[in-house]
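Hi there,

I know you've been waiting on this one. I reran it after we fixed the sequence typo, so this is the corrected version. Both the input and the resulting structure follow.
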Amino acid sequence: MKQKLFYTILIASFLLSGTAHYSGLNTTLQFVFCCIAVIFAAGFMGKATESVAHYAGERMGGFLNATFGNAAELIIAIFLVRDGLHDMVKASITGSIIGNMLLVLGLSVFLGGLKYKVQNFNVMLASHNASLMLLAVVALIVPAIFAKSFTFKEMDMLSTIVAVILIIAYGLWLLFSMVTHKKELSDVSARDPEDHAHTLNWSKGKSIFYLVLATVMVAFISEWLVGTLEHFTETFGLSELFVGAFLIAIIGNAAEHSAAVFLAMKNKIGAAVEIAIGSSLQVALFVAPVLVIVSHFMGDPMNIVFTLYELAAIAIAAVLARSISQDGATNWYEGFLLLVVYVILGIAFFLV
């Protein structure tokens, strides 16, 4: 029954958002319909990815999950780049990183902690993820420090070089975590055959077809959504920084957010921590650099220089996530503190 309801809402929201877009309906309603549609389409993509990963095997499955984990957000960002909304793209990258490390991790730890007094996880994996996130922050800070000393051409060159280096670093992290040190970084407590039982309901061919279909749906909805953003921000007097960092980031990752929270409430905090911190790492080392490179092919190069506000927020989130994960155990109060910081940042971004 739950699955039927999910697919009913998925199809209905997709048709409504498409109808609203092509009929020229009120822009605010278009935005609302697109937000609902992209959340369910991203959830559908997550289910399809899990099913394909089940048939692909553990190593390839891990790669697929990593690749499609932020697919919805990446697609939305590509359309933002196409429309020249570079500031909003960077804000959405910032929002995704802090959202995963503060909101997702905070909710997971808080709600999981209310049910279980103390939850434990693989400290080595979480520590590696958090430490790499700090290194990624450093890589993002360097271009901002030297930005005023470079010409536009030099800044473009530095951004491209940094982007390539970060993608290589992410590729090597996948090799490290899924091949050379897979055993040391595995979290046995996070594995449960029942979690993937539903994937057996789809054949291999059907799983691939659904993954392609979900990607196409997300692409269409993302284009419709981006088309409403400029009017929406003007109507409600919101800044691109706030819309990108909080609204777009939360919408693009809603399905992944809920998955982490539900896992934590099943006492699988290791998987939740990996989703939260690992997803932030993926955004910083893969999504952001890919967008810089893609922008060149669209004829409007985007640099990798973030504002002081964005860098400060990312650095704060990375330091807190590193602090929370260093002992391999969590409790509800740690989750509450992460949520408090996220709310404070949200208010600050709203008032900027």
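Quick highlight: The radius of gyration is 20 Å.

Best,
R. S.
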